[in-house]
Structures are given as structure tokens and as C-alpha cells.
Amino acid sequence: MAELGKTELDSGWLAARSTEVDLTGIQLTTTHPPSLNSSSSPWMEAVVPGTVLGTLLKNKLIPDPFYGLENDAILDIGDSGRDYYTFWFFTTFKCAPSGNQHVDLNFRAINYSAEVYLNGHKKILPKGMFRRHSLDITDILHPDGQNLLAVLVHPPDHPGNIPPKGGQGGDHEIGKDVAAQYVEGWDWMTPIRDRNTGIWDEVSIYVTGPVKIADPHLVSSFFDNYERVYLHATIELENRNDWVAECSLIIHVTTELVENACLVEQLQTQNLSIPPGAHIDYTFPQLFFYKPNLWWPNGMGKQSLYNVAITVEVKGYGESDSWSHQFGFRQIGSTIDNATGGRLFKVNGQPIFIRGGNWILSDGLLRLSKKRYQTDIKFHADMNFNMIRCWGGGLAERPEFYHYCDIYGLLVWQEFWITGDCDGRGDPVSNPNGPLDHDLFLICARDTVKLLRNHPSLALWVGGNEQTPPDDINKALKNDLKLHPYFESLNELSSTFTNSDDPSKYLDGTRVYIQGSMWDGFANGKGDFTDGPYEIQNPEDFFKDNFYNYGFNPEVGSVGMPVAATIRATMPREGWQIPVLIKLSNGYIKEVENPIWKYHKYIPYSKPEKKVQDQIELYGSPKDLDDFCEKAQLVNYIQYRALLEGWTSRMWTKYTGVLIWKTQNPWTGLRGQFYDHLHDQTAGFYGCRCAAEPIHVQLNLASYFIEVVNTTGNKLDDVAVEASVWDLDGMCPYYKVTEKLSVPAKTTKTIIEMKYPKTKNPKPVYFLLLKLFKMSDNDILSRNFYWLHLPGGDYKLLEPYRKKKIPLQITSYILIKGSTYEVQMNIKNKSKIPNTETVSYRNHLSNREDHDMDQMEGWSGEKHETGLLQRIYRRFSRESDGLKVVETNGTDSGVAFFLHFSVHYTKKDLQEGEDTRILPVHYSDNYFSLVPGEKKRVNISFEVPSGVSPLVSLRGWNFQDEHSVY
After folding, report:
1. At the fourth CATH level, which superfamily is domain 211-327?
2. What global pTM score does this model have?
3. TM segments (predicted)?
4. CATH no., domain 695-791
5. N or C: where does the chain have the smaller number of CB atoms within 10 Å of the terminal CB?
């Protein structure tokens, strides 16, 4: 008897180009199975899940399309024809069912269509990139359990051609298919040559007894101010035999108390009879919970999850099938806000100010993995974001993506596969009626809803990007995704639901459907092009009344240059040349980038036509790649902090939210990203992290007033704001504490005007440190550090400031758990504190410099009940040999400016350009500065390969040479 449940088929696959295989699928799965024995064999090791390009790259048959200009050396499907990228995939598996067992072969997604051969039997998979396929293979399995599987995968029907100048979606032909549209290239990505052809998602066999469970739907409804909740569940059941199945259905809900200990919250058993061969929907009686732990978005509370398990037992057989899912009790809704005209989201009755980003996909070759997804989503949570928008030209994201959004509290806006560039506009106008097969689109859409609907992070469905679906599709989606009456108003309509109107019987019924990304509370709400802009800005402009006129901007973007090590790792030496800066007659600077940067979609740091001076040149003309990239990080930090602070400055009075275009790149692009494709963060990452913290003190760069932002549901009482100005000589010419403040919940409050620039003889370049702290215990709630210049000035005085040698003390604690390193760095600026008669020692508090540290998630991405610092200190007190103290020999006084850690492996005989970074690394903070006497704690977590010795290094504006601290 085979073991019940799912077995993934994710290894042992072979692949070959169809034109190089003379055998039929029947022959491959009977008399002539392929092998790698012959050097002339067309077969190679395959990447499944994955794409044809991923397999070719694995076998070094194509250059790396993400390196330099190598993508141009790969034959495009528009030139080769579809047969060139039509591939066979082959594997074997063991499965020998017995008795009344049944076996399905499941493909969670294939692009674009396929023929499946199993043990000489042929089955056809229909078209569509975003649909599941399930084949009953019970009767064609070999009695000895040895089974041969071959899949012939065909590319999209309309892969299109790439115009000489590229463009948004190439020639738009891909829009005729129900497939990802980015694959013909965009202004942030070059074309994917195989158009992502392949078995790109999970393949599995699934064993059940006589009755099978399919697509359960879980819904929660709340009453009595969220103290009382009901769990609703509807499932599909199939009796796969020719006799009546007498079944017992069991649903139980558990929640984890501590590690390996769970509390059973609810257990219910129901009996029913299922006729032979029947498919039925069954709705459980609602389950009652009192005061459940709620699921909250990031920054609003905990992401409490319950495990809901459903089992069907058949009389005379026993357990036949089971299903389980992590579920979060939460209620989400959105309406158009009367005050701003923007869409206003509420979770569990609380308004949430949206600060998030646009997401394309994790990797352009669809090399998707749970580990990569976890890193991606944790990075977004680390930036204090609370929403991710899955853009319509990309994917219907995978359950693993949503799983980590559930864990880390990221709300998800999921679009369907419509984008105006390919579906209604362009030159010439493209596909005004959308994909050719509207029925296929709706099949994929409905299946996607069923796949994802149980995730608490899923916030809303949107018809398309900058476009609405064709009228018939839009009408069908509106009907399919109509809200249950209870969720239309989010009011307590009744204490119970009858079986006939149970909300779990809807396809979804709980989330709003919006027809397009610029409609109904987004942009101007009418579909006009009122999102953007997508370029460098003067930082103060984000705070001005005329910067953006609508309540919720779904796309606003800017620069995204990575660090120099990434350029060297992804480009040959010709790509290490920095842009030429050309001074125009109007005094502004134009950047001319090298051809490789242009190919990788570099976006300049100047915009002469918008009167934005080159923001890198403000620090002085860059000398080389390292200088350029370091100055770019300074700009990245300022640019994105100002963007988010500008929006939160007008929280609820003008804006309800903003989504930045975009958070990451699915390839090695040079624009719009907070971390690069190699998973190294830019300084913009930490600018966002600072600006989007739930409680935040900030400087309005337009008015020069200090503001306190409180996005939480609790009022801040008896708090104080400290402002100190520091000059390049290490002096503190301005210091002020404003005490006994209160800030209402979900409010941005103006505190006091910064007087320093208006004082006598202000310095042309200076630093400003803002701290918000509790007066009762001096606990720091928010810390924000600015470097500023006088109006009309620049930062060129920072260039000689590099020569300052600031004395630092770095104390490191190291904890090693298997391959995971957890490093705690305590850094202190040991400069002499100036004019202590006016500078309060509150400015140099050493207790809990990072106010959120005790709430940090575990460095390995897990959640812990105990505060992180307490756990570490207990461990280190028992392992004192993990302690190391390093002091730098600095003799100057002043600010230790723009310090940043990196992690490398140690190796002899390094090759030129060799990338020694260990990635990814999670930092509690980076790209930070310390004023004299100030301390800071930074927690660092990373994994190392076997046999690798890591090196943690510290660099900064005052450290021109890498300084090892471990």
C-alpha cells in the first residue's frame, strides 16, 4: 500500500530538445527510456520545477543571461521558432497503490501546454500558464511500482518578436496568451528568450483512498468587537468508487503554544454518505471561537496563525484523505476614503496606512524556492512594509510566497494577467480585446482564486495593471468575486449564518475586486495615467503639496544602483566604467552610461528637464566605480526615506497609502530596487526601514518642521523629541529637547520648527540627529539621522571629511548554530563629547538603541516568544569565548558617518573581480551614523556553506579601507 498524501517529483529529471529526439512519448515511457550514458545523447540533467533556459544554463549550453550582455548571445524564440524551445522532460518514480487507493499526477503550473506520457499512455494538458492540472493515473501505473513519465512542453502560442528598440512587452504578441507578459522585455528588464517555457512549478503524485478532498475554503466572521469569531469551511469531496461511501469528516483547529506543544481549539466530526462517482460540496457547521489571537499586518501586531486540518475517513477503509492549512483570523476591507479620495484599508476594524512596494517576481528564469521566497519576504518585513503588489505583467504568485507573507505580515494585492502595455495600448495599439481565449483566462483566474484564497495575507484582487480586463472578463470577475453581504459593509449583520448563505460557499466572497490598478481609489480613480513618476527627485519635493494630487499612488519609483561588488560580479570589466557627466548649458548635468549599464536599464541620478541636479555629483565628481556606488548609496538612502516620509507627513489628510515601484529586480537590473538580484541590500533598503517604522520622528524637508508619526493604534503619552545638530568639526552648535508631548493614535503631528539653518553662521553641511523617547524611562522609540546642506548648496565638504579618523569600539558576540551564524555588534563612537553643559546625556543612552530589537524575528527567520536580546545574552554568558573587542586608532572627534557591515568568506589567491560576499545577510540596521559618545547595536544573521570561514567587515565614509571586526 502506498503512503497517503503528496510526494514531490523535484529531482532526477532529464530534458532534451524535441527536434533532437526521434522517439515518441510512448517509446520513451515503454521500450526506450532516455539516459545520459552516451556523449552524443541529446538528453541532459533538467531543472524541474524550472524553465528550458534554466536547464540549458545548468548544463552550460548558454551563457548566463543575467551577466553583462550575454543575453544577446542567446537565440530568441521569435527568431528560432517555437520548436527550438519545445522540450521533452523525463523522469521515473515509484508508486504502487493497492486496494481502493487512487493516485493523481499533479502539475501546479506548466507554461504553456503539454503532452503527458506515462507508461505508454498519453494525456493532453490544456493551455494556460496559471492553472493546475490533475490526472488520475491509478489505472496506468505499473504493478511493480516502477513508472516512466515523459512530458513534452510547448512554449506560449504567441511568443512574439522583439522590436529593435525593445519596449514594454516587445511587440505585445504575448498578450494574446494567458501568460506572464514581462517575458518580452520591459523598461526594467530584457527579454526572456524562451518566454519561460517549462514545468515551472511543483510536480507531484498524490495518493488518496476512495474519497478525495479538494479545494477547501476557509472564512472567518467576527462579532462583539472581535471577541467572538466563527470559522466557516466548505470542501469539495469526490467518491472515486462505484459504491456509496459512508464518511466521517473531521475538522480540528490547533494553535502552537510553545515549540512542539499545541492547543486543540476545536474538534468536530460530521457524518455523510456520498453516492458512487459523485462530486459534492460540503459545508461544515460553523465553529465558534472566543477571543481568538488575531492576524495583523506587519507593524500592527502579531501574525497569529492556526492550523486547520480536515480529514475524511471512510467506513470499512479508514483514513482516505487529509488536508491542512495555516489560517489567520482577520477581517480585511477597503473603501474609498471621503477625505482623500484614496482607497482606505482596514484590518480587524483598524485603518492601516499602506507603505509597500511593487513586486514582479523573484527570478526571471523562475528559479523559485522556499528559501529564496523567505528571504524576499523577510526583506520586505525588515523594511517595515505592510503591502506587496503583485503586478499584472508578472505571476499569480505561488503558495510559498503567500505562506511567508502570512508569517511576516505582508498584505498582498494580487493582479490578474492584464497590463495596458500589452492589452489595449502601444504602438500600434495592442490586443484591445485582451487575450484571444477569454474562457481560458477565466479558467485560470478561478483556479488561482481557489489556490490562494485561504491565505490571510491576500488583501484584494485587481483586474489588471493600468488597464481593465475586456468587458466580458471584467463582468465575470466582478460576479465571481462578489462579496458576501456580511463583507460588503463589514458590519455585524447577524450572529450566525444559515447553511444557504455561508460565506465559505462563495468563490472568495471576502475580498474586494478592483477592475484596474488606477481605478476606484487608486491614482485618480478613473484610469488616467496618474501613477508615477519613476525618476530621481529633489528630496524636499516629496513633501510639497503639488508632488502628487491623489490619495493612493500605486506606483512611484526612483533609482536603485547596487554596491560596486554587485557590478563586478554581474558585468565584465567594460561594465565597470562609471557614467560620463556632461554639464549642459542650463547648468544641469546629464549622465551618459556605458552600453552594459544601458542594457541593464540604468536610471540616471539626474533629471535636467525636471530641474533635478545630479544627486551623486552633489558629493563631488565620482572618481571610480567604488566611489560612484558609495555616493549612490548616500543618494538611495535620502531618496527613499524622503519618499516615504513625504507620504506619511500627510497621512490621512492627503494620502491613504503608497506603493514604491519597485522593491526588487528579477534579474541584474540597475533601477528601482532595495536589494539586488544577488540579495545584497542597497542603502535605500535602510532608508525605507527608517521611514516606515510604526512610530517615527522625522524632518519635513519642505517646511523644516519636526514631525512625529504614530501609525499604531495606541496614543503616545509623555514622550519627548531631542534634536541635535553636529558639524564637521565634531561640535554640537544646536541642541533642543521638546518634552511632555502626546501623539494620538494613527496621527502625524507637527512638533516644532528646526531653527538651526536660520541661526547665525550656520554651517554649509551639517548633521541632524532626531530622537523620540519616553520621558518615564528614556527608552528610545525612534532615531533618525540626516545629513543636510544649506539651500542651494551641496555636500562637497563631505569629501575631505573622509580623512577624519574617528575612534570606534566594536564589541562582537558570535553564536554558531550549525551553518547559521548569529553575530551581535555593539559599536560606540569614542569621540569626546563637546560642550557637555548643553548636550543632555539622554543623547547618548546606551539602553536599547534599537527600540524594536526585542520584537525582532529570529535571525533564521523564525518567530520566538522570548525577547531576542535576552536569549542572546543568556547564551553568550555561557559561551564567553564568542566575545571579541576591536578598537580603531582614530584621533579625531566627530560623527562616524555612513557605517555599513558586510560579510565575506576568506580565501587565498582571489581572482580579479571575484565576489567574496556571503549572501543573503539579515541586518537589524545598516548604513548608519554615530555622533560622539553614541552607541548602537546591530544584529547580523547569515548561513555559510560547509568549510567556509566568514569574515564580518565594517566600512564607512571614515573607513576607506575595509576594517575587519570579526
Report:
1. Immunoglobulins (2.60.40.10)
2. 0.95
3. none
4. 2.60.40.10
5. N
